[in-house]
Every structure is written in structure tokens, then in C-alpha cells.
Amino acid sequence: MHYSFIYGTNILPKVKYSNVFPSKPLQFEGKWFQGPANPDAYLREIFGDYMKVPPPEMRKTHS
Predict the structure, then answer these.
(1) Residue-wise pLDDT tens digits, 19-53
(2) Number of domains the chain is built from
(3) What is the spatial distance between Cα 43 and Cα 37, in angstroms, rounded to a whole number?
């Protein structure tokens, strides 16, 4: 199993290489960007159930 690290962020999670590469075009708010091969699996590896809003005590603000 291959893993990759995400640089340029304040988090350095280990994610499965196959969930990131090969990248593919993804549409976001009407524009196209290169994104991970499997966006759902990629986000779940980093954030868990990313579709659920965390409770107030678990929310963190950032700049």
C-alpha cells in the first residue's frame, strides 16, 4: 500500500496514494480544478464523516 503526504497545509495526514493519484478534473462552484482521484475516500481519510457538521465544542476557527 502506498501513502502520500499533503504538503502546503497545516495538517500532514497520511492518505492512500490511490485515492489521490492520478488526479482528475473536478468542478467546484462552476470552475474546473485538478483534484484527487477519489474525492470521497480522500476526504473521509482526512476528516472522517466530512458531511456531518461537528458539534460546537469541536469546531475550530482558522485564518
Answers:
(1) 989 999 999 999 999 999 999 999 998 888 999 99
(2) 1
(3) 11
57 φ, ψ to 5°?
Answer: -70, -15
* Residue labelled with grid coordinates 474546473: 32
Q: Find where cell 467546484 sits.
A: 28
Question: Which residue is associated with the grid cell 478534473?
Answer: 25
Q: Is 42 left (phi over 0), alpha (psi -120 to 50) or beta?
A: alpha
The C-alpha angle 52, 55, 61, rounded to 5 degrees, equals: 95
> What pTM was estimated for this model as a whole?
0.66
For residue 29, give its domain range.
3-51
In a domain, 36, yes or no: yes
Give domain status of residue 20, yes or no. Answer: yes
Closest CA to 45 of 19, 24, 22: 19
